[in-house]
Design brief:
With 534 residues, the protein is an alpha/beta fold. The chain has 19 helices and 20 strands. A hairpin with an 8-residue loop joins strand 3 and strand 4 (55-56). The model has no long low-confidence stretch (mean pLDDT 93).
Length: 534
């Protein structure tokens, strides 16, 4: 048996790193248990293609982190240990597609300045409507971001948010704001805009929240995404995402956190209704408090040997979202877009907004490979040239509308009977490059090497990505906010005393904010968690 600790944390993704750091800074003895040989979960970078080309293997962009409470609490400590960000003060994101009516290319670009962005919209009324959208969210920011940082099953915390809205004089507009918030992204933009620009810019960004354009709560997440990037840009870690993890690792070690890599958590030990620790492949870690950054399935059907019956049943029916795919390319030169303005944009979506993205989502939900997938084109070298040899570039392509077990191809061209074979991966890469070529001719010829991670590879790399879903489960309203992961286990504090559930499958959901780790750590600190006797 290892020495007892105050807090044992299972998993080392963003929420675990945040919780471990905040608790250790408060003087708690913390043990971090990680099955992999490295920390970070879906935060990693490596030379995945050729020497000198640094690719963010999974996640990459950090606007949610730098705008959140975890960064406010830990940012200074992390920067002192080498964390640096590269960001943009101008172009932040864009979308490009072929106009189905005319065949012409339509490009819309968001600048950091909202007014500069709106000024490019063709319909004059949309320019004012865009700024009004951001103003409406700003007026309700205390309510929205208060909800993201609160336990929504706590009457006290919800009442505090409501009282804040009342004090700000916002109660009269609350019903209209709630109505807009639960709309789908498609209906939200239709209700406010006559032109196409806002839909093309921000509806594809709903995919990054685990949503599609036809799912509820897009009406709040769409303006949240827009406000986040106008306010905080699209920061990437200088030198690659692994340096973010390295800064955390240094902070944890400096504050005495015990890090157990290559260690499988096998059982959460419970006695008399209270947690006693974690049995691992390398012995027992005794602790009166355990934070489990795992999927609901793992927590309630594997780690707890006698779980609450209702929670175990609900976990067995927990719904994961669409699978995702990562493609990394080493390029002989940076992408040269037909519209040269895109050469400076860090992230470009190949999408015509709700229409093409909605169709691709529906095809993936039906188990089909989308015929025209939404392609996320990440150009990190625009912000951080150090990621590739001089004159060359990396490309980070993400696809968030792919099935874990494809049953067919919506285009009727690719054989899927054997699943994600190397042949199918390469064939789908060819389809993705075919999508890119009309907007950036010649890109295919500049590819020096590629690395493809299918949904099955994501699941193998991280057990929390059940069925290749990197967002911890569908973020549709029925298992989001008040009901995440499900009503029988909503809230981070479980029915087992001392056991807390954190991670993307818990409120406030997916993303690199570290929100659930920060929320739970601060609760434990405020509860004056007593350190174990040494």
């Amino acid at each position: 048996m290892n020495d007892p600790v105050d807090v044992a944390i299972i998993g080392s993704g963003i929420n675990s790193l945040v919780a471990a750091a905040e608790l250790a800074l408060d003087g708690k003895r913390v043990c971090l248990i990680e099955r992999s040989d490295r920390l970070g979960g879906f935060i990693h970078s490596a030379e995945r293609t050729l020497p000198g080309f640094i690719h963010d293997t999974f996640s990459s962009w950090h606007p949610l982190f730098v705008s959140g409470g975890a960064y406010a609490h830990l940012g200074k400590e992390l920067h002192a240990r080498g964390l640096g960000y590269c960001n943009t003060t101008g172009e932040v994101t864009a979308s490009v597609a072929v106009d189905p009516a005319t065949g012409a290319h339509r490009v819309v670009i968001a600048q950091r300045d909202p007014a500069e962005t709106a000024a490019t919209f063709k319909v004059a009324s949309d320019q004012a409507a865009y700024l009004a959208m951001l103003d409406d969210l700003g007026s309700n920011a205390g309510t929205v971001f208060g909800a993201f940082g609160a336990e929504l099953r706590s009457f006290k915390e919800v009442a505090k948010i409501a009282f804040g809205a009342l004090r700000r004089g916002r109660l009269a507009g609350t019903e209209a704001f709630i109505r807009d918030s639960v709309m789908s992204g498609r209906n939200y933009v239709r209700s406010r805009f006559d032109g196409w620009e806002t839909d093309r810019l921000w509806s594809p960004w709903l995919l990054h929240a685990g949503l599609g354009p036809d799912q509820a709560t897009g009406g709040v997440m769409l303006p949240v995404m827009a406000m986040s990037m106008h306010s905080f840009g699209l920061p990437v870690v200088k030198g690659g995402a692994s340096r973010f993890v390295a800064a955390f690792e240094s902070l944890l070690k400096d504050n005495g956190v015990q890090i157990m890599l290559g260690t499988e958590a096998e059982e959460i030990l419970v006695g008399a209704g209270s947690v006693k620790g974690v049995r691992t492949s390398h012995g027992v870690v005794a602790a009166d408090t355990v934070l489990a950054n795992v999927s609901p399935q793992a927590l309630y059907t594997q780690l707890l040997r006698r779980p609450p019956a209702a929670a175990a049943a609900a976990a067995g029916k927990y719904q994961n979202g669409r699978g995702a795919m990562q493609i990394h390319l080493a390029l002989d030169k940076p992408v040269e877009w037909l519209d040269a303005r895109l050469n400076k944009v860090p992230l470009v979506h190949l999408s015509n907004g709700s229409d093409s993205t909605g169709i691709a989502c529906a095809q993936a939900e039906a188990g089909l490979l989308p015929a025209e997938p939404t392609v996320v084109v990440g150009q990190q070298c625009v912000l951080d040239p150090s990621r590739a040899p001089e004159g060359k570039a990396t490309l980070w392509l993400q696809l968030q509308e792919v099935p874990f077990s494809p049953v067919g191809d919506a285009a009727g061209q690719l054989a899927t009977a054997d699943g994600w074979t190397d042949e199918l991966k390469q064939a789908y890469l060819d389809r993705v490059l075919d999508r890119l070529e009309p907007f950036a001719p010649g890109t295919r010829d500049t590819v020096l090497a590629s690395d493809i991670l299918a949904p099955t590879d994501l699941s193998a790399a991280n057990p929390n990505a059940v069925k290749g879903d990197p967002y911890g489960g569908s973020a549709e309203l029925f298992q989001n906010l008040l009901w995440r992961p499900f009503p029988a286990a909503a809230g981070h504090q479980t029915t087992v005393k001392g056991l807390w559930h954190i991670g993307a499958s818990t409120h406030p959901g997916p993303g690199l904010s570290g929100g659930s780790g920060h929320l739970v750590a601060q609760k434990l600190i405020k509860k004056a968690l007593k350190p174990r006797k040494r």
